[in-house]
Design a protein that fits this description.
This protein is an alpha+beta fold. It has 3 helices and 5 strands, in the order βαααββββ. It starts with 5 loop residues before the first strand and ends with a strand.
Length: 127
Amino acid sequence: MNAGDRLPPLEIPVTRTLIVAGAIASRDYQDVHHDPDLARQKGSPDIFMNILTTNGLVGRYITDHFGPRAVLRRVAVRLGAPNHPGDTMVLTGTVEEVDGDTATVRVVGANGLGTHVTGTVTVRVPA
């Protein structure tokens, strides 16, 4: 791993099941993550993914790339455009810095509305 390395993109189909399952798994029972009618009443065109699911998908992206020995040391994300059912989020990443067996990776996740998530992940990859 070297500064400037680009990770291959990962396409994630955003399904209703993924959104609801992620919300339930993270104990986020807010209606906007599982009830389309209530989400619309609150101004959203449909249910949308919660930040904890996004955070988990960012972590998966990094560990899928760096392998089973990778240890996430820090994940810092910021949300933008929502992920709605029927869209696809494409995660991309660039290694910004390497210090021994630890790298900082800049991650961006985009969908049909724009940028869903931006952030950095610090990952340790033991030799």
